[in-house]
Design a protein that fits this description.
With 173 residues, the chain is mainly alpha-helical. Helices cover 66% and strands 0% of the residues. It is elongated, with a radius of gyration of 33 Å. It starts with a helix and ends in a 46-residue tail after the last helix.
């Protein structure tokens, strides 16, 4: 039991820190500002893409797709708003030489960017980007071979009508 406890402690001691925290502390401040601005720009691009998906869902008049994309869009808008505020606070923190605040704001933007990219992919799945799609002008021609019998084999002929009435079931009638 003591061996298991020592092994668990050793494995926890070697567990890597969160990649955002390590990354934020290693990135110089001017690079943080540049990367943050690029991330916010990419998130705005993702917002535009998802807005196009929303319009596409509206045009198909599919309520399920529309609701799905709208949910992703709402989340992206919230994350973008937070990221824009964090970008401004990051720039202020760098100007004041507040390293801890700058790292925190940079980490928020980095996490939001990855979440927005994930939401963009989910919005594409809502629409079925990879699914088979047709347009309104699609026409299908079917060639029926000559050797097939005429008519629809799934349609049964109606039953023949009964001409005579059956005998009464009781003698009182």
């Amino acid at each position: 039991m003591l061996l298991a406890l020592v092994a668990a402690t050793f494995s926890l001691a070697q567990a890597p820190a969160a990649p955002e925290a390590v990354e934020a502390s290693k990135v110089p401040d001017p690079e943080k500002v540049k990367t943050s601005a690029e991330s916010v720009g990419r998130m705005r691009g993702a917002l535009k893409d998802v807005l196009q998906k929303l319009e596409e869902a509206r045009n198909t008049k599919d309520v399920v797709k529309l609701n799905c994309v709208n949910e992703k869009l709402t989340q992206i808008k919230g994350l973008l708003r937070i990221s824009e505020q964090s970008d401004v606070q990051l720039q202020e923190a760098v100007a004041r030489k507040e390293t801890a605040t700058a790292e925190h704001e940079f980490t928020k933007v980095t996490i939001a960017r990855s979440k927005v990219e994930q939401l963009r992919a989910e919005a594409e799945q809502c629409i079925g980007q990879l699914a088979f799609r047709t347009d309104e002008n699609l026409s299908v021609e079917v060639d029926i071979p000559d050797y097939l019998p005429p008519g629809d084999p799934t349609q049964m002929p109606p039953p023949t009508p009964i001409d005579s009435r059956p005998p009464p079931a009781s003698p009182t009638m």
